[in-house]
Amino acid sequence: MIRSIFQFCKRHHLVDILAFLALMISGALILVRGAEDQGYYWQWFRVPKYIYQFDDGRFIAGPILEGLKITLNITWISLILTYVIGLVTALMRLSNSLLARAIARVYLEITRNTPLLVQIFFMYFVIAPILDIDRFAAGVLALSFFEGSYASEIYRSGIVAINKGQWEAAYTLGLSTYQSYRYIILPQAIRRILPPLTSQAVSLIKDSSLVSVIAVYEMTMYANEIASETFLVFEIFFTIAAIYLALAITLSRFVAYFEKRTQVAS
Predict the structure, then answer these.
(1) CA 20 to 30 Å from 30, out of 77, 138, 230, 257?
(2) How far apart are alpha carbons 232 and 238 in whole angstroms?
(3) CATH homologous superfamily of 66-265
(4) pTM of the model
(5) Bridge partners, 125 (sequence order)
(6) Residue 198 near residue 252, CB atoms below 8 Å
């Protein structure tokens, strides 16, 4: 009986894999056929040199890899700032201070109800000259404040979901509000909000491409230049899309593994 169930599960996974491959192949064929109907000639053989090259046995990163380095720098810095801004804003909204709640509310309403592109322009053309920061920092700050507004609601929902008895127990033990958050409330909330925070991180990775509008030479900016010079529009942007997909999947898998290990440890 157990063996039959195991064999069924194996066949079930095999069917899923075959169905996925069939779907991918069908999509690729439709894409190729559509491009051929428009008279587009695929030139994938020209793409690798824009990713990497070897010169006398020495590895040389192409413009796409150079842009990927900048994209990763933008992502990890913005991600840290996003989580910090989100947590601070959530705590401000939950505080007893009327001023703190008002500031947090105004920030959330403005940030969440205006386009990210507009915020990037505002940060670069208005705030950056005042603070004397470069375009990279302006792009990172715009991304961080935009994503932080959404992260704050994730934090707040996780904190509010904690049973009030936990607060009462903390105060009974003589813990301050800071100690209650640090040792009791936040450790429990993080386990609940880790999946939505991961989704927010994936969103940040994709939104990082918008900083190309202020001439930050990340991956999308390099792709635009290559496509305009070579007319390899589909090949270059499909390559960029595949890299973004790989980054998002890698991050999601890492967090899922970390979450599983945390559950096992607890």
Answers:
(1) 230
(2) 10
(3) MetI-like (1.10.3720.10)
(4) 0.82
(5) none
(6) yes
